[in-house]
Amino acid sequence: MHWLFHRDFSCPLLLKRLMGQSIVYGIWAERDRKVHEGKTSISSVIFK
User: Fold this and answer.
1) Which superkingdom does the taxonomy of this entry point to (predicted)?
2) How far are the Cα atoms of 7, 23, 32 from residue 3, in angstroms, in the given order?
3) Confidence (pLDDT) at 13
4) What is the spatial distance between Cα 32 and Cα 24, in angstroms, rounded to a whole number?
5) How far apart are CA 26 and CA 44, in angstroms?
């Protein structure tokens, strides 16, 4: 996720932060689904 810290003025910092947060949320939600429900998603669904 080095792109998050790369100084690029074509992409606003707020947009980078929102994208980073959505990636973390998606990973955390998948982890919770796996731990608490015993269900996993296939990679094509996770990375669509």
Assistant:
1) Eukaryota
2) 8, 13, 26
3) 82
4) 12
5) 14
Closest CA to 46 of 22, 25, 34, 30: 30
Distance in angstroms (rounded) separating the CA atoms of residues 27 and 40: 12
Closest alpha carbon to 43 in 24, 30, 28, 25: 30
Say whether pTM exceeds 0.85. no
List Cβ neighbours of 23 (8 Å cut-off, separation of 6 or more). Answer: 1
Distance CA 42, CA 18 (A): 24
Which residue matches tokens 């992409």? 11
Return the pLDDT at 1: 58
